[in-house]
Amino acid sequence: PLVLGIETSCDETGIGIVRGTELLANVISSSMDEHARYGGVVPEVAARAHLEALVPALEAALAEANVTLEELDAIAVTSGPGLSGALMVGVGAAKALAVSLDKPLYAVNHLVGHVGADALDADPLDYPTIALLVSGGHTSLLLVRDLVSDVELLGETIDDAAGEAFDKVARLLGLPYPGGPQIDRVAEGGNPKAIRFPRGLSHAKDMDEHRYDFSFSGLKTAVARWVEQKRDANEEVPMADVAASFRESVADILLTKALAACADYGVPRLLLGGGVVANARVRQLATQRCDEAGIELRIPPLSLCTDNGAMIAALGAQLISAGHAPSAPGFGADSTLPVTSIQA
Ligand code: ATP
Ligand code: MG
Ligand code: FE
User: Fold this and answer.
1) Which cofactors, by name (predicted)?
2) Could you give phi then psi for residue 80, rounded to 5 degrees?
3) Degrees (nearest 5) of the Cα angle 143, 13, 94?
4) pLDDT tens-digit series, residues 98-157
5) What is the pTM of this model?
6) Which residue, 3, 223, 245, 308, could crosslink 14 as a Cys pair with Cβ 3.0–4.6 Å?
7) What interface predicted TM-score (ipTM) does this complex get?
């Protein structure tokens, strides 16, 4: 089926078009720059930016795919989780299009959408698979037994998201927002073993109760304390070593949890998604540990890892192919939609 996907859960306005598992267009417009001076995504600013970006992005995607609105078989939209005001813009636009064009509408889960991105690969992963989704808004570990019918949340962050931790630590080091790419760059020149920062919830005792959960706020505080002590002593802060050691801790935590899930469930596949997947050390450590453990690792291209409309269109197409009915028209934006609700 020819499906249009609309994504507005955070700061990316994403419009994607797929034909089944074939990617035809993936237009992304981000309001990231507008949030930079606030040091994080401002919900009202994001919502207004979606209003402005949506129609131009839609027109660009239709042109890129060389299709018309009339030719579409269906429309898919992210209905949650995410920022309420931002989600509402996409949901409103999708409903307006669906009613005016008389097309079926599928309201889908943003997190499952990240997993659905892999359907666009020439050689998609088999199921079951473990999925690790790491971005500015979420850090979730999923057991996906079937993309359209069986997704289980194994664990998630109990405080900050991994990307949020990168952004906060960057800020305390005086680096601009978004901090992830900045820390990644500075870390390249540092020694990851220079400072042993804590690995939240990864110690033996935590691996019982919080086996698949994440915590990054203690790590952030540890970095802040360490830097503060140096500054108080009038010593120079070794930026590269701090960045490398912090990045090492995050990568270690993420992969320790993900590989524990693969081992526990006997699932030899791991799919990564979310903006933090751009991190060089996360990619490297994932490759190394999956190699050692005989786990097939999938890292989609970055344009399909960060928030985008193509993954939403892909999930919509998979739902249609599996025979799912369109969503009832009464659905709305749900900022806390659980991952088990694949379709709203
Ligand atoms: P959501 O959580 O709803 O998916 P988001 O906009 O926060 O939305 P993304 O756009 O996928 O998520 O990712 C942005 C996050 O990824 C930011 O926190 C950013 O710092 C982080 N990030 C980007 N590049 C890197 C990198 N190279 N290393 C670490 N973190 C990175
Ligand atoms: Mg974003
Ligand atoms: Fe996302």
Assistant:
1) Fe(2+)
2) 165, 170
3) 85
4) 999 999 999 999 999 999 999 999 999 999 999 999 999 999 999 999 999 999 999 999
5) 0.96
6) 308
7) 0.98
- Give the number of other Cβ atoms within 10 Å of residue 38's Cβ: 10
Question: Residue 207: is its pLDDT beyond 90?
Answer: no
| Alpha-carbon dihedral sign for residues 178, 136, 92, 63 | positive
Give the count of beta carbons closer than 10 Å to the beta carbon of residue 314: 33
Q: Which of 257, 78, 82, 250 is nearest to 154 (CA)?
A: 257
Burial group, residue 58, by CB count within 10 angstroms (0-12, 13-18, 19+): buried
CA–CA distances in Å: residue 188 to residues 135, 175, 192: 21, 15, 9
Question: Measured from the CA of 305, which atom of ligand 1 is nearest?
Answer: 11
Task: Report in angstroms the alpha-carbon separations of 198 from 36, 244, 252, 292.
Answer: 28, 14, 10, 24
Pocket test for ligand 1, best of 83, 166, 183 (most atoms within 8 A of CB): 166
CA 157 to CA 180: how far, in whole Å? 17
Using DSSP's 3-state secondary structure scheme, residue 60 falls into: helix
Q: Please tell me the distance between residue 308's alpha carbon and the centre of ligand 2 in angstroms.
A: 9
